[in-house]
Every structure is written in structure tokens, then in C-alpha cells.
Amino acid sequence: MSFTIFNFKKSMCALYVKHTVYIVRKQWPVRDSIHGEMRVKSLKSRRINDISDLTDHQACAFTSLTKEQFDDMHALCDRIPDRRAITRRDLLIFLTKMRQGLSDEFLTAIFQLSSRQYTSLVIKEVRKSLMRRFVSENIGLRAITREQYMERHVTAFANHLYNPRPEEPVAIFYIDGTYKYCFKSTNFRSLRQTYCRHKGDHLVKPALVVAPDGYILDISRTITMLQCSDMNSKTMKI
Q1: Is 0.85 topped by the overall pTM?
Q2: Taken in order 214, 220, 221, 225, is the CA torsion positive or negative?
Q3: Do 187 and 96 fall within a single domain?
Q4: Distance between CA atoms of 46 and 42, rounded to whole angstroms?
Q5: What would the pLDDT profile of 191-216 be if each residue is shown by its tens digit?
Q6: How many domains does the chain have?
Q7: Is 22 a domain residue?
Q8: Helix, strand or coil, per DSSP, at residue 206
């Protein structure tokens, strides 16, 4: 049971790695030198360098993974060419960003990094590293064979409901879109594309390919609100 839950978490994590948009925000300088010194002294009291510095409960709260699952995920963080290797703290920062949705400024304070720009660079490098192998091995059409998909994720109910010949199993999946809220972008074009007048907020609408048991097979594309008028035709072009 725990292995199945971890596979679902890995699929969701790979999905977010592939389609998460990070918003760069302006960093406000510390104008009061006294407050700045107090902040530095308070942060030096404890430094989080690795997930081993956290308890099991804290690790789950930060990343939604256990320490063993974190180790397995870090093993899949390949080195980016002409870049340094991805450290365990880098992965911890990235997973905390995805799990909690914290701003780069807040992450900089928690992990005592040098600047917000460095935090943004760490998140960018971890995302590129996970895209090289982790995403392709856990989500998408290349992560599972047709036979494995039909055996593991096509339920008997769906097979009898949609298959004219249930004795010969076929691949059954659903394609649908769902709203995903996002922060306001500082880019005017992105700001205009993501605003939905119907919902009165900024969001995107990824088109998911889902198995009858809920397994996310693939995500075809992320559609902005300006593209929703012809979404059905775009969705089917996989």
C-alpha cells in the first residue's frame, strides 16, 4: 500500500515539475540595520542543510515524503552539464517550494541562503535535473508500456463499460482539463493570458490524460485562458 502511494506521489511530483511556473518577485532590502542584524543572529541559531536535520514529522510537512522516499528521489537527480551537482539541500528547497507554495524570499530566510536570486537559481537547476530522468521515468507515455497500463490501471468496471469485447482488454483513458490557480505574473502578456473573466482570477488549465483508477498517464499541454475557446480541438491533438 505504501509503495502504491509513493508511486502516486512520484507521478504528481513529476507532473508539477513539468508544468510548474515560478514567479520572480522583487526583493525588498532590509532598510533598518538593527533589524537586519537581529534577523541574521536569529537565523544563525539553526541551519537546515539536509533533510536529516528534520524529524520524520517535519520532513513530511516540508516535502510530503518520508526520508527514504527523499533518498530515492535524490538518486534520480542527474548532474546538469556545466553545472554543479544537485545537493540534498537543493532538492529539499525545491520540494518545500512545491509542497508549501512559499515565496523565494521566505525560502531564502528559512534555509539561510545568500539571496533570493540564488534561491531562484537553485530551484531552476533542480527542476532541470529532474526533467532529465525523473519526469520521463514516472509520468508520460514512455514511463509505462501499453500492457502494463492495461494490467495495472484499466479497471474491470471501465473495461466492461467502454469495451464492446471485454474478453479482449484495451487501453482506456480519459482526457479532461482542470483549473489551476497561479500567482500574478510581472509580465503583462502572461498576466493577460492567465486571467479568466469567468473565475475572476489568474489560472491555467492543463489537459490531463487519466486512467480509470486515477493514474495520471500524461499531460498533453497547458492551455491559457485566451486559448479556452478552441480548447477541445487543441486537446485532442496529442
Answers
A1: no
A2: negative
A3: no
A4: 8
A5: 787 888 777 888 887 888 899 998 98
A6: 2
A7: yes
A8: strand
